[in-house]
Amino acid sequence: MKTEIKNFILNVLVIGEDYSDSGEPEYSGRGMYGETTDAIKTEDRNEINDAIQAHIEDNYEDNVVEELEELGLINTVWDKSDSDFEVEGELYEVNLRRDNLGLGYIHY
Q1: Burial class (CB in 10 A: 0-12, 13-18, 19+), 64
Q2: What is the pLDDT of residues 12-52, one digit of tens each?
Q3: Alpha-carbon separation of residue 101 from 3, 10, 27, 42, 89 (angstroms)
Q4: 94 DSSP β-pair partners
Q5: How many angstroms separate the CA atoms of 9 and 98, rounded?
């Protein structure tokens, strides 16, 4: 995950906590081949998705969907089975990967 996305989730959506104590990219998920990235921990699997949907609903008049797409947090999809949510007939997915931490989830 890009640092800008992490900061948006932590500071604007006020969801989860930074995976790294130092704030530096430290998470190396499946298929990353030793690379590290920023990540966020949550207790609920869909906590970030739900917060994004609520943020869009609360700020829809402010072109928030376009801003989230530019940030890279959401993408337009064409198939409903790939969609995380719908806004005004358009289908979107949250552009994050997720792993189970046992007692929570990590999003990267």
Answers
A1: middle
A2: 999 999 999 998 999 987 778 889 999 999 999 899 999 99
A3: 21, 19, 12, 9, 34
A4: 74
A5: 14
